[in-house]
Structure to design on (260 residues):
């Protein structure tokens, strides 16, 4: 009976983690470039009471084993890389990736982080930065008062008043990964490369599987509220059922203790 208590407790703990993941998805339903996560489960070890093929007498053996599972655990969380819907903003500094890949962000430490959030801005020095003030790519400086144009291949041009010819500033590069699900979340809409993701493959938009860029758009979250609400309800019910198992096991232990 004590085994049932521990097994049900493991189930409650796993469902609680699933609800935590679902809650984070719902909280970020309006976060630009956010990719929802999914909790993945794995069963625990089994206690073998009788192995398969054990002799039963008379020269016969059991066709199957007698095993009792010891519960469940969270095996990991999978970040879903499906495309979010593109939302038109009309802001020339907003850029969305349509397809695979990430923008590169240079952190104050010199490290490179990656993001799908293309809500870019200009700082006091005219550099293209993200919402946290971190430099986009290796740095793009826009002349004061210039009209910025970002082509589908990532080429950034600035047209200054009085000059009929636009001035090329640089080109946005897109980073792709062999296993984008292996990227580590760093907060602030940023991801970092890991041993699981592999090294970043850098290239221009639209080349070698990298997505193209769209100026004046941002990519919305790929969270579907209806799906998350269903997961929320199913997780709550699973948690409730596991708690009932604990209650039933406790009642059985109480009846055993009352025997005289």
């Amino acid at each position: 009976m004590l085994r049932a208590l521990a097994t049900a407790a493991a189930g409650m703990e796993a469902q609680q983690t699933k609800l935590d993941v679902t809650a984070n998805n719902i909280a970020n339903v309006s976060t630009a470039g956010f990719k929802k996560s999914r909790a993945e489960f794995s069963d625990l070890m089994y206690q073998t009471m009788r192995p398969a093929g054990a002799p039963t007498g008379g020269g016969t053996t059991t066709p199957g084993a007698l095993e009792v599972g010891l519960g469940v655990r969270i095996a990991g969380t999978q970040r879903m890389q499906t495309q979010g819907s593109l939302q038109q903003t009309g802001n020339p500094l907003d850029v969305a990736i349509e397809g695979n890949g990430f923008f590169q962000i240079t952190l104050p430490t010199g490290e490179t982080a990656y993001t799908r959030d293309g809500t870019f801005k200009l700082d006091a020095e005219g550099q293209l930065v993200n919402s946290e003030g971190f430099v986009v790519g290796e740095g793009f400086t826009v002349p004061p008062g210039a009209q910025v144009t970002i082509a589908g291949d990532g080429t950034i041009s600035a047209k200054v008043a009085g000059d009929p010819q636009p001035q090329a500033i640089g080109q946005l590069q897109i980073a792709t990964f062999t296993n984008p699900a292996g990227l580590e979340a760093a907060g602030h809409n940023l991801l970092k490369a890991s041993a699981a993701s592999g090294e970043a493959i850098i290239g221009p938009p639209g080349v070698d599987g990298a997505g193209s860029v769209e100026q004046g758009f941002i990519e919305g979250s790929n969270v579907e509220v209806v799906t998350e609400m269903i997961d929320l309800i199913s997780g709550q019910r699973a948690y409730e059922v596991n708690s009932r198992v604990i209650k039933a096991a406790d009642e059985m232990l109480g009846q055993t203790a009352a025997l005289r």
The chain has a mean pLDDT of 91. Residues 2-48+70-80+223-257 form one domain. The longest helix spans residues 225-257.
